[in-house]
From TrEMBL:
Organism encoding this protein: Halanaerobium saccharolyticum
Gene Ontology MF terms in the entry: kinase activity
Pfam families listed in its UniProt record: BcrAD_BadFG (PF01869)
Keyword Cell wall biogenesis/degradation applies: no
Key words, A-Z: Kinase, Transferase
Name of the molecule in the record: N-acetylglucosamine kinase-like BadF-type ATPase
Amino acid sequence: MLIAGIDAGGSKTECIIVDTEKDKIITRAQTGAANYQVVGLEAACREIKLALEQAKKRAGISCLKAVGIGLAGAGRREDLVKIEREMGKIMNSRNFFFSSDAHIALLGATGGSTGAVLIAGTGSIAYGLKKNGAKIRSGGWGPIIGDEGSGFWIGLEAAKKAVRAEEMRAEKTELKNLVLEHFNFSKLEELIPFIYQQQLPRQKIAALAPAVFDLAQNGDEAALEICQEAAAELALLAHSALLKLDYQEDKIAAAGGLIKSSYFYQLLKEKLRENYELEIYKAKKSAAYGAVFMALRELEN
C-alpha cells in the first residue's frame, strides 16, 4: 500500500511516499514554505500540490491509497477546514487527511504512539496526546507573541545583541560581524528595511541560528547567553506541555531543525535534566512519516 506523507512546514514542504507493507520510503520531494498563516492559503496549497506531484513523478506512479498532510499554522479545526476546501479546488483530494504539523511530528517522533514532542525549528511548540486521544499543546503562538527558543528567536536575539553592542549598550561581541556576513550587509542599519519592509522574514532570520551555535562554541559570551536562554525556554515549554497530560511522563521526544545541532541538543538535554528532571530523545521518524501514520489511522477508522 502506497501512502504519501507531507510535512508542510514554516521553512519547507517535504513529501515522502511510503510502501507501508515494507515500511520503506520509495521517494521524496521538497518544495517551499507552506505555513498558510504566513504565505497565504493559496500559496501553501500550491506548495503542497507541487511537492506531491514531484514525488509521484519521481516514483513513476499515478495513484496512492491515501495522503496525510500536516500543516504549520493549522492548529485549529477552522484552519483545517479552509485548507481542505482550497485543496479540493486545485486537485482531487479524495482520501486526503489533514492535521497540524505538531500532530504529525508527534506521531513520527514516537513511532505512531502517544506521548509528547517538543518541536524546535523556525518556530517552537510542544504537543502531546492524552489517554483518550485529546490533543494538548504549549507554545505555537507565532513570532510576535511566542516562538521562544526557536530558530527565529535565536536569530532575532543575535541581531538585537549585535545592535546593542554596536551602540555600546552591551559588551563587545562577534555577533555584529556574524550578522553582517550572514545577510551580506555592509552596516547594521540595513537590518531595518530587511526586517520591517519584509514583514519579519522568519526563515531568513532563523537561518542564522547554526552560525550562532558555532560562535557560542568558540567562546563568544553574547552568543552563549542566547543559546543558554533558548535551551531554558524550550525546556520550560516541554515541562509545560507534560503538565497538561493526564498521565505521568518523564520524557519527551524532540524534533525540528535546531535538534540537528549536537551542541544545542546537549544544552537542551542538560536544561531539562537540571530544571525539571526530564529526559529527551530524538524523534524516531520524521514528521512526514508521522503524516503517513496519521493517514493509516484514518483509513482504519
